[in-house]
Specification:
This protein is an alpha+beta fold and 192 residues long. It has helices spanning 71-87, 116-129, 149-157, 173-184, and strands at 60-66, 92-93, 107-113, 134-139, 162-164. 27% of the residues lie in helices and 13% in strands. The chain is globular.
Length: 192
């Protein structure tokens, strides 16, 4: 179950107010639409967009889950963990957990992705090779105006989560507790 914090969504079209209206013209395939040209590629190809973390923490965490009592899943997860370490040595990968840890309901391992290029290579590869395992991909964000670090962490694990395979219910009580504690702290406005 998702836990949502109150939030607003600013216009995504800021900066395009004076742009020509988009046409309904179709490409040669007769289905897709012709997009207006732009000068060069989007900067999102080179660096994660704000507020994603472009530092050593990494823009995304990837949690690969397995049911620890299921021997076949545990074996497959261990092989996948090893293969990722060999296939993508530039990614940061953590220990192989054989029991639940933190908000994660079953055993897992974690991989950090630092660039859009790594994300673009690793996530599709994982979609093909994850087998019977569920995967949570969540962003790491920094410096969002009016959002405490605890609120950001909760949003990143819930509202902003991307799932491959079956979605597993995270135990976000500790994250919710951190949000409540931050709101109750002296000097806090108690709002996001």
């Amino acid at each position: 179950m998702s836990y949502s914090l109150p939030r607003s969504y600013p216009s995504l079209l800021k900066g395009f107010e004076d742009a020509e209206p988009l046409s309904d013209e179709k490409n040669a395939d007769g289905k897709s639409l012709v997009n207006p040209p732009r000068d060069g590629l989007s900067g999102a190809y080179e660096a994660f967009v704000d507020p994603l973390d472009n530092s050593r923490r990494g823009g995304f965490d990837v949690h690969v889950y397995h049911f620890q009592r299921n021997k076949e899943q545990a074996r497959y997860a261990r092989e996948l963990w090893e293969r990722i370490r060999r296939e993508f040595p530039e990614l940061r990968i953590y220990r192989f957990w054989d029991a639940p840890v933190g908000p994660h309901p079953v055993a897992m391992f974690e991989v950090n992705v630092f660039t859009p290029a790594q994300f673009g290579a690793f996530v599709p590869w994982l979609a093909v090779h994850r087998g019977p395992l569920s995967v949570l991909v969540h962003p790491n964000t920094v410096g969002e105006e009016g959002v405490t670090p605890a609120e950001a962490e909760l949003r990143n694990h819930t509202d902003r989560a991307i799932w491959m395979g079956e979605r597993l219910p995270l135990d976000v009580d500790a994250l919710k507790g951190a949000v409540a504690a931050a709101a109750a702290a002296p000097g806090s406005s108690g709002t996001s």
